[in-house]
């Protein structure tokens, strides 16, 4: 079907006449018949609806935005609406059934149920009497035996498929159900897909060889890479570091906030799925590691001789997080419950885990030979209609191993401004209190909303002793330099001009989501680096990334529903909630079991 419809462009150009062509599940539009295509709308996963306010309007929600169309009369609108929905239904009805994917889904379901089974038994083990402990242990061992047996069966099926490849194309194709010819499909199209797959198999041969090395040790991780549409397009190498992202991202990319955000006024945005294009390719768990580009500043907070200077260095380090919102005005991915992240260097180790989903709480632990740095981060995000505000009520804990000092500090709120008009920017506002619980010293940092470019990013703070006497004054700009009593204590690293194409990431931040063979062997399947939606965005596969984001979020909802129906509770693996008698608040404390138990995780999150 094809013909003219009106398409909403923007508040200035308003409705413009476009010529639409519907072919399979793709709706293409141009200025006139035979003209150059101005865009395509993929209907496969889109929402197609009528407007309650306008009888001539059709609304298509693509997941990354909203397309508004208008017909000249009701009959024409109904014909287009019927054609769009019929093509979408036909496409969804005739999708090729992927038996390999079905095996993976069944295996995932088995592991999920066994994880719940283990949690129930662990809970029961704490309640039963001592004479029942042996019986409970026997059941746990039996469950583990069954789980490993089922996993091994599925792995052997995959191995038999690989053995048949190259011996008989006909037999192998019967196993390769992803490219099976559906009914009413032209053979020529199938042949093209065969050639494309053979080319991809040749390009990714080394990756497949590597994957075989992790098949038995971590079948969930193996399957999440082997059968994922994002990772099937990538080749995993063993490059230790990288100098840029795989895809150059337009720093001036425009996306329509208002059609999405107008539905969010007054709501908690942590409960609302955000379109992929609102994000940068990092999880909030990785965001905490980004500040450690300035690890030396935190090191000075532990080693400086003067106690007030130690607090001044800690204050300077805490402001590093403000830099990240200066140039890149996109949010981090919200972690799913149970998601983890590790970042190990010769000098320090960072371990983080998403310990609660509603409200979202992230636990972070970093340790070096000089200090222990931990965060219990909560967040509530609200939208007023013109700006977004994120409140962060958690506390950051800093233990100095050299002096045995214990310090905490709070975090200011984050405001996103100019959502609709003007240049959007992030701003840190509010008061942050730094407390040395050992000496009684107090630091007070106040970040005010900017009134002009002159006072943007300005830092003003004081450090007082336990008697209230001012001992140190902090000044400067957190995007340039920070001074303590007029002495330079922190300076921003130089910015690579090419970083504008990569979300303004520094070389340190570029490594946070880097994935090579060694890293892949080391991390568990719950690590943020395994997220296919982030990986797709990083590589420029934006439509596929949106589909993956929806799939991961739906998977999380299904798991939560299952646990609620069965009265199960998620138990964080590496952190435990405890009351801190010094700060008089609950915090999540690291159990020092990550490196020993990270490969025992049963969760399949991605």
From TrEMBL:
InterPro entries: Oxysterol-bd (IPR000648), Oxysterol-bd_CS (IPR018494), PH_domain (IPR001849). One of its GO terms (cellular component) is membrane. Residues 1-89 form the PH domain. It holds the Pfam family PH. One of its GO terms (molecular function) is sterol binding. Belongs to the OSBP family. PANTHER family: OXYSTEROL-BINDING PROTEIN 1, OXYSTEROL-BINDING PROTEIN-RELATED. This is PH domain-containing protein. It comes from Paramecium pentaurelia. The lineage of its organism: Eukaryota, Sar, Alveolata, Ciliophora, Intramacronucleata.
């Amino acid at each position: 079907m094809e013909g003219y419809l009106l398409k909403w462009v923007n508040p200035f150009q308003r409705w413009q006449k476009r010529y639409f062509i519907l072919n399979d599940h793709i709706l293409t539009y141009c200025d006139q018949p035979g003209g150059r295509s101005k865009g395509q709308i993929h209907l496969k996963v889109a929402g197609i609806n009528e407007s309650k306010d306008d009888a001539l309007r059709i609304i298509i929600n693509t997941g990354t935005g909203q397309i508004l169309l208008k017909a000249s009369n009701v009959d024409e609108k109904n014909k287009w609406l019927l054609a769009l929905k019929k093509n979408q239904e036909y496409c969804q009805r005739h999708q090729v059934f992927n038996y390999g994917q079905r095996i993976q889904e069944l295996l995932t379901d088995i592991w999920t149920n066994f994880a719940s089974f283990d949690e129930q038994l662990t809970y029961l083990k704490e309640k039963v009497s001592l004479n029942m402990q042996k019986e409970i242990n026997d059941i746990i061992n039996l469950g583990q035996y069954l789980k490993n047996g089922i996993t091994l069966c599925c792995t052997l099926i995959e191995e038999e498929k690989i053995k048949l490849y190259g011996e008989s194309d006909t037999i192998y194709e019967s196993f390769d159900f992803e490219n099976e010819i559906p009914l009413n499909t032209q053979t020529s199209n199938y042949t093209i897909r065969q050639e494309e797959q053979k080319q991809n198999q040749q390009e990714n041969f080394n990756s497949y060889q590597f994957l075989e090395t992790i098949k038995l040790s971590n079948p969930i991780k193996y399957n999440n890479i082997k059968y994922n549409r994002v990772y099937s397009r990538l080749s995993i190498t063993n490059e230790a570091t990288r100098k840029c992202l795989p895809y150059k991202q337009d720093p001036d990319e425009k996306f329509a906030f208002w059609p999405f955000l107008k539905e969010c006024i007054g709501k908690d945005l942590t409960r609302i799925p955000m379109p992929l294009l609102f994000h940068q390719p990092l999880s909030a768990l990785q965001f905490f590691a980004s500040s450690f580009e300035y690890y030396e500043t935190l090191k000075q907070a532990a080693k400086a001789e003067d106690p007030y200077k130690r607090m001044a260095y800690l204050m300077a380090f805490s402001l590093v997080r403000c830099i990240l919102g200066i140039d890149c005005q996109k949010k981090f991915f919200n972690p799913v419950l149970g998601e983890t992240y590790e970042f190990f260097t010769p000098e320090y180790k960072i371990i983080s885990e998403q310990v609660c989903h509603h409200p979202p709480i992230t636990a972070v632990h970093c340790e070096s030979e000089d200090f222990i740095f931990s965060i219990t981060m909560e967040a509530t995000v609200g939208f007023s209609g013109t700006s977004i505000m994120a409140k962060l009520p958690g506390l950051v804990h800093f233990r100095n191993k050299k002096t045995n000092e214990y310090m905490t500090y709070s975090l200011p709120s984050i405001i996103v401004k100019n959502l609709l008009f003007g240049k959007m920017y992030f701003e840190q506002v509010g008061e942050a209190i730094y407390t040395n619980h050992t000496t009684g010293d107090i630091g007070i940092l106040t970040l005010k909303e900017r009134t002009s470019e002159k006072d943007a990013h300005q830092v003003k703070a004081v450090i007082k002793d336990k008697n209230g006497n001012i001992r140190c004054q902090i000044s400067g700009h957190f995007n340039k330099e920070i001074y303590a009593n007029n002495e330079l204590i922190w300076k921003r690293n130089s910015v690579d001009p090419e970083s504008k194409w990569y979300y303004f990431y520094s070389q340190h931040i570029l490594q946070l989501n880097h994935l090579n063979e060694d890293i892949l062997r080391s991390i568990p399947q719950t690590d943020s680096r395994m997220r296919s939606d982030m990986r797709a965005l990083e590589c420029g596969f934006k439509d596929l990334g949106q589909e993956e984001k929806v799939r991961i979020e739906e998977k999380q909802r299904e798991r939560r529903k299952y646990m609620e129906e069965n009265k199960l509770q998620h138990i964080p693996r590496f952190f435990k909630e405890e009351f801190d008698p010094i700060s008089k608040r609950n915090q999540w404390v690291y159990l020092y079991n990550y490196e020993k138990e990270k490969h025992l995780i049963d969760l399949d999150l991605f």
